[in-house]
Amino acid sequence: MTSHSILLLTERSKIIYNKIMGRNKKFDQATVISTISQTFIQYGYEGTSLDDLVKATGLLRGSLYASFGSKRGMFLATLEQAISVDPTSETTIDLVIIALMDLTSHDQKINQLVTDWSQQYSSTTLVNLLGQAILKHGQLKGAPHGKPRNHQ
């Protein structure tokens, strides 16, 4: 076959080809996305390395890249899944905060996804959802600790 040849595969031949070439996905994508989500939540987007994702999922780099294309693709998949499964879950809110901090200013697709998500809620609800999550991460649990400072 020359470099200009076209290879046409039926669905059955694609399955056979993938098995022969070792490209058959042997993992549950939803489980992997969940694991990747937790890794991003633990380290943040910028702080998460591909090595962190490989270690957390137990998959090889090639498998992750083949499934998601890039680290950004992995984050996008996690955010899309979280929003579609439970838009107000702790995981979703954490991923939205990460997106707001690290990605929405320069990634139009993620910006649009977060914008669409946010438009489902009133500004008061958004403040409560995001604020409580931020306070929790700061280990403030929704209320200031100690005595209020005397501002003079």
From TrEMBL:
This protein's UniProt keywords: DNA-binding, Transcription, Transcription regulation
Alphabetical list of Pfam families matching this protein: TetR_N
DNA-binding interval(s): 49-68
Domain HTH tetR-type: 26-86
Single GO term (MF): DNA binding
Listed name of the protein: HTH tetR-type domain-containing protein
Species of the source: Limosilactobacillus gastricus DSM 16045
